[in-house]
Amino acid sequence: MMPHLTGFSRAELAEIFSELGEARYRADQVFRGLHRRRLQSFEEITDLPKALREKLSETATASVLKVESKYVSTDGTRRFLMKTHDGFPVETVYIPTENRDTICFSSQSGCPLKCDFCLTAKLGLLRNLTVGEIVEQIVTVLNDVYGIGEETPHGTNLVAMGAGEPFLNFENLINAIDIMSDEDGLFIVPGRVTVSTAGIVPKIYEFAKLARRPNLAISLSASTDEMRNLLMPINKRWKLDDLMQAAKAFEKTLKRGERFTFEYVLLGGVNDSIEQARALAALLARYDLVRVKINLIPHNPAEQLDYHPPEPERVAAFKNELESLGVSAYVRTPRGRDIYAACGQLAAKAGSQ
Ligand code: SAH
């Protein structure tokens, strides 16, 4: 395959260009073309001489994802189903809110983890996405929403909460986030990015050491090993105690005013009782975790899944119990459920419910 230049940092491009005998500023022009102007072909980078554009088109590529279909929810959420050059599905979701956009991107095609409540799990792991495939998801979505090369009117937040386990594609994910933070490119700073992990414990320690790192979310969804083993089999590899110790070590590296998140998928009749809310608060207290917030995600159902969301009153009661015990808790409003775009619904499905 020809190299996909969207997956290279400004420094890497400069090196490639110098090997080709091209000037450094040409590399900068290409970087700005691909990222700041969000062009997906070399032909459109018109500040380059025609001969260089032709040479690049023959030896490299500026786009490796093809949009197969796009679904638009009644709430404005858009789901993009794309394909890699070798035919694997990649899903990305655009979620507009009043004063910001959120793009939920995928780190893998499919997912190797077998979380029992998640539809993506049914695909299994198809393959890791490359750096360029991660970056191009965001480029493609922004171009669809705002037009090629047009300014984005307000800040874009990114969440690595699409298909896949980001910490099982750690290096590509971190390199992609680095490239997207470049002020000569998309300029989405790490503070606007959140990475969600199901609990790949050694990678939490590695992540904690990064100098410029995004925000962290850890999917918990249970406060006993017994329950978590059932819901998230990764818990058999790294037990709750391992995970909570890693979380505590991570908390110690937070800067002033920063917090991190635990996600808790609320499954009706399974993990949504008042006693379980108390057990969750007690778990946090046991590890002295205080700079955390809990994101409660009412389950997004799908035909192949045996779970259902709790009634809204139960969700509210769970949240109130946590708050009364001094734990900040937020309920994530489901977005794009009608087009299979909500959390845990990405399974390369065509169409809508
Ligand atoms: N693999 C990573 C990131 C992807 S999932 C992780 O597990 O964190 C993003 C969030 O959606 C996770 O917190 C996951 O637990 C949650 N989720 C999965 N399936 C869901 C469903 N059907 N309904 C609601 N949330 C779900």
Tell me, what's the shape? Answer: globular
What gap, in angstroms, lies between the N and C termini?
A: 37 Å
Main beta-sheet annotation: 10 strands, mixed
Q: What's the total count of β strands?
A: 12
Strand order of the largest sheet: 1-2-3-4-7-8-9-10-11-12
Poorly predicted sequence stretches spanning 5 or more consecutive residues: none
DSSP strand content: 15-25%
| Backbone structural class | alpha/beta
Ligand identities: S-adenosyl-L-homocysteine
The share of residues in helices is: 25-40%
The topology string of helices and strands comes to: HHHEEEEEEHEHEHEHHHEHEHE
User: Would you tell me the overall average pLDDT?
Assistant: 95
What keywords describe this structure?
single chain, 353 residues, alpha/beta, 10-stranded mixed sheet, two-stranded antiparallel ribbon, globular, binds S-adenosyl-L-homocysteine
Compact overview of the structure:
This protein has helices at residues 10-19, 24-36, 50-59, 131-146, 170-181, 201-208, 225-231, 234-237, 240-252, 274-286, 312-324; strands at 66-72, 78-83, 89-96, 101-104, 108-110, 125-128, 156-160, 193-197, 215-219, 260-266, 292-298, 328-331.
Q: Describe it for me?
A:
Helix 6 packs parallel to helix 9 (240-252) and helix 10 runs parallel beside helix 11 (312-324). A hairpin with a 5-residue loop joins strand 1 (66-72) and strand 2. The model has no long low-confidence stretch (mean pLDDT 95). The relative contact order is 0.12. The chain is 34% helix and 18% strand. The protein has a 10-stranded mixed β-sheet, with helices on one face. Strands 5-6 form a two-stranded antiparallel sheet. It is an alpha/beta fold and 353 residues long. The chain is globular and about 70 Å long. The protein contains 11 helices and 12 strands. The longest helix has 16 residues, at 131-146. The two termini are 37 Å apart. Bound molecules: S-adenosyl-L-homocysteine. S-adenosyl-L-homocysteine is lined by residues 115, 117-118, 161, 165, 196-198, 219, 221, 263, 265, 297, 299-300, 343-344.
